[in-house]
Amino acid sequence: xxxxxxxxxxxxxxxxxxxxxxxxxxxxxxxxxxxxxxxxxxxxxxxxxxxxxxxxxxxxxxxxxxxxxxxxxxxxxxxxxxxxxxxxxxxxxxxxxxxxxxxxxxxxxxxxxxxxxxxxxxxxxxxxxxxxxxxxxxxxxxxxxxxxxxxxxxxxxxxxxxxxxxxxxxxxxxxxxxxxxxxxxxxxxxxxxxxx
Length: 196
Description:
Number of domains: 1
Distance between the termini: 47 Å
Oligomer: single chain
Shape: globular
Number of helices: 8
CATH class: Mainly Alpha
């Protein structure tokens, strides 16, 4: 008897995150970016406004358009399930929140004339974090070095040579968060599984 194929709801955090990004993007497009600017974009607004603090986290959901969303969603859906399986759903939520908050706050402080939206920082955190999958204590994975040079190096070069609407600094900050979290998580997990 043949077993029936069914669609499994794997990687819940990643799927919910991508779905929320899609909803925020559609809302933004439907309202002429009103909802994006109100809820899903961080910029230098008054610290007396409670939405300023909310946007430090929710800016990762908003996207400037469909193309921006599709680009980020593709990477999230490609890398996210592997990371969620390796580190767990709770840890992945923490990584998304930490990346959003750190990116939002640093952009707010150091780039007050720049508005930021999109999950690119989270994508870069995932890319760098994925390069730690073969980590052993006392070693630096070559994949981590190459990914850092290729992705972060590209962002530094583009930040210095191009004038576009892409926040290379947001990508770099996301990558740094991914590197720190990846190193800390893998060091901790190696410590947990040592046999005596």
